[in-house]
From TrEMBL:
The keyword Transmembrane helix applies. It holds the Pfam family DUF3043. It comes from the Bacteria. This is DUF3043 domain-containing protein. The chain crosses the membrane at residues 105-128, 134-153. Keywords: Membrane, Transmembrane, Transmembrane helix. Residues 1-12, 54-70 have a biased composition (Basic and acidic residues). The keyword Transferase does not apply. It comes from Streptomyces achromogenes. The lineage of its organism: Bacteria, Bacillati, Actinomycetota, Actinomycetes, Kitasatosporales.
Length: 198
């Protein structure tokens, strides 16, 4: 009774539009988008075919991709391929820090063999040998700390000379952690010989 005639006139028009959309499209009418090239259509079909259909397949595919990435990373650590190295080992700054550590003798790399010797000496039930083992522990720890401090200072200076204005943050700590490992166990594998300038 109090409705406006304008609303009543609009309602049938919308209903007509809805019913018109159910009719088949005239083949001569434009479809509203360009026809894709054959190569584009083929790649779309392939991507649809390779897309996992459920969560189980997606998880399996993700595990496989992760396994392949880890395998590539492991091979890169063995042969030094820069493309697949982990983020912590990438870049010229980290490469220089590795080469600098590998080119010199570090007290820390002999820690494991020395620790075994000291532990064997401390097991012996002779008071003089046990006190010698404790003294050796103290000497080794002091030497490692002093060597690490001197190495860190020298490496920081070399990095500032070699890479002025570049971000060298974390490179010294990275190099010191590498110096704690025995040379043959280091990854990525050493590229320089001892005494060689990096």
């Amino acid at each position: 009774m109090f409705r406006s005639r304008a609303k009543e006139e609009k309602a049938p028009a919308t209903k007509a539009a809805v019913t018109d959309s159910k009719q088949p499209r005239d083949p001569q009418a434009p479809k509203g988008r360009p026809t894709p090239k054959r190569s584009e259509a083929r790649t779309q079909r392939r991507s649809v075919a390779h897309t996992p259909t459920n969560r189980k397949e997606a998880a399996k595919r993700q595990r496989e991709e992760r396994r392949q990435a880890l395998e590539r990373q492991r091979q890169a650590l063995a042969n030094g391929d820069e493309r697949y190295l982990p983020a912590r080992d990438k870049g010229p700054v980290r490469r220089f820090a590795r080469d600098w550590v590998d080119s010199r003798f570090n007290v820390a790399e002999f820690f494991l063999p020395l620790a075994v010797v000291i532990l064997v000496l401390s097991v012996v039930r002779v008071g003089a040998i046990q006190s010698l083992a404790l003294l050796l522990w103290l000497i080794v720890i002091v030497l490692i700390v002093l060597d690490a401090a001197v190495s860190g200072f020298r490496l920081k200076k070399r990095l500032a000379e070699r890479f002025p204005g570049e971000n060298t943050r974390g490179a010294v700590a990275y190099a010191l952690m590498r110096s704690l490992q025995m040379r043959r166990l280091r990854l990525p594998k050493p590229r320089v010989k001892r005494g060689e300038r990096p």
